[in-house]
Write a structure and sequence with these properties.
This protein is an alpha+beta fold. It has a domain of 186 residues: 2-Layer Sandwich (Alpha-Beta Plaits). The chain has twelve helices and eleven strands. Strands 1, 2, 3, 4, 7, 8, 9, 10 and 11 form a nine-stranded antiparallel beta sheet that branches. The protein has a two-stranded antiparallel ribbon with strand order 5-6. The protein starts with 9 loop residues before the first helix and ends with a helix. Bound molecules: protoporphyrin IX containing FE. Protoporphyrin IX containing FE binds next to strand 6, strand 7, helix 10, strand 10 and helix 11.
Length: 387
């Protein structure tokens, strides 16, 4: 890998593990580097929940959702010199950190490499805002448009860089977040840290959101999921996009809504997730079905009626998390889709205009990212964009 010639600190210029370890010693990271170099000799045990950093796609997208997540947005603090080279060096450093952490090793100069074990299905998934694609001079993701009911707060809006960290273990996750954040400090400022949790329902890709609803039922699966996320319209082969929205839920007012009102607003039953047009959870959402009074079983402004893709090209893959930051609780909505302009954005416009659930929702965060392709062994994130 050729290294850019910039005035960045040495740590940021080091791409390969060996070079990174040597560089750490040369620049006086001292004992921490030695410990992390020793830790690299440990072979990760796949039975302990290892997801590969290397592959066609980044992990943490179409693979099974882990129970804990932290989404962190950073803005760049450029130094003198080429922005493009600084970004390249940054992505090399993140790649090195991610490869180590996901295989259960500490990052370079890690003061607690023991906390990386076992990795507990840790994934780091990296995305860039349009502003960084412009720095590189390649790729288009665009920006998130304004939606009708937005009440956005500055700290949850678009950041330059995003990493989605996920793991089954919140302690491993915490360590990974801290290790990477320490390394990014010199070149970035943190815009947001959004922490989420979910618990998959037995034998399903669904979870209860904080309204109590079964969420994730009509997510695409298998090939349909891969097609929705990495298919036609993607901004780069094996890359995709992430729409990240933060919805606060007014749970005190939701408490006052009876079961019929709740089911009506969603179009599905809270009890078992079944659509009002059927009787079990996997029955189709049938918008033509009528009830005994001859009225539509699912109201036209029910969430699922408006969210249902009007054609295959609108399909998105939702991978959201519940949040409770002590002040507010809600849903960290995260969806992956090949082209947000033909899928996420029109669906979100429909929902923002008329969704019955809006009464209890306040969208306070909104951002859109270009998710980089997967990495070949020995390579680094975004390498295709720099050659
Ligand atoms: C806090 C906000 C939201 C909540 C609580 C929520 C909740 C739910 C629930 C419980 C379901 C039914 C089960 C399922 O199929 O997953 C559902 C379906 C769905 N939601 Fe949401 N959702 C929210 C926001 C959004 C947003 C912002 C979008 C996209 C812009 C979206 C898109 C969808 C889609 C595509 C479906 C499946 C519709 C179908 O084909 O049946 N949701 N949502």
């Amino acid at each position: 890998m050729s290294m850019p010639d910039t005035s960045l600190p040495r740590r940021l210029l080091l791409g390969s593990t060996a070079a990174a370890a040597a560089g750490g010693l040369l620049t006086g990271f001292g004992a921490g580097s030695l410990r992390s170099a020793q830790a690299t000799t440990q072979i990760p045990d796949s039975e302990l929940g290892y997801r590969s950093f290397y592959g066609q796609y980044q992990s943490g997208i179409i693979d099974a959702q882990q129970e804990h997540a932290v989404f962190i947005g950073w803005d760049m603090r450029w130094r003198e010199g080429s922005k493009k080279q600084q970004l390249q060096a940054l992505l090399q450093m993140i790649s090195d950190d991610a490869a180590r952490l996901m295989s259960g090793r500490g990052v370079l100069a890690d003061t607690e490499p023991e906390m990386a074990q076992p990795p507990s299905e840790l994934t780091l998934t990296v995305g860039l805002g349009q502003i960084l694609l412009d720095v590189i001079g390649q790729g288009t993701v665009g920006s998130m448009p304004a939606f009708a009911n937005d009440e956005l707060e500055k700290q949850y809006q678009q950041s330059d860089l995003l990493i989605q960290f996920c793991s089954q273990d919140p302690t491993v996750l915490h360590h990974a977040v801290r290790a990477v954040s320490k390394n990014l400090r010199q070149l970035t400022t943190q815009r947001f840290v959004q922490t989420g949790f979910m618990r998959p329902m037995p034998g399903a890709d669904t979870f209860r959101n904080l309204f109590g609803q079964v969420d994730g039922v009509n997510n695409p699966a298998n090939e349909a999921r891969e097609q929705a996320v990495f298919g036609e319209g993607r901004w780069i082969p094996n890359g995709t996009t992430l729409a990240l929205r933060r919805f606060e839920m007014d749970l005190d007012r939701w408490d006052e809504v009876d079961v019929t009102g709740r089911d009506f607003a969603l179009g599905r039953r809270q009890s078992d997730g079944s659509p009002l047009s059927g009787s079990s959870v996997n029955d189709p959402v049938d918008l033509t079905a009528e009830n005994e009074l001859g009225l539509p079983s699912i109201a036209a402004n029910a969430h699922v009626a408006l969210a249902k893709p009007s054609h295959g090209g609108e399909t998105i893959h939702r991978r959201g998390y519940n949040f409770d930051d002590g002040q507010h609780a809600g849903l960290l909505f995260a969806s992956y889709q090949s082209d947000p302009r033909s899928s996420f954005i029109p669906v979100q416009h429909r929902l923002a205009a008329a969704d019955a659930l809006n009464t209890w929702l306040k969208p306070v965060g909104s951002a859109l990212y270009a998710i980089l392709p997967g990495v070949d062994e020995g390579g680094y994130l975004g390498q295709q964009l720099f050659s």
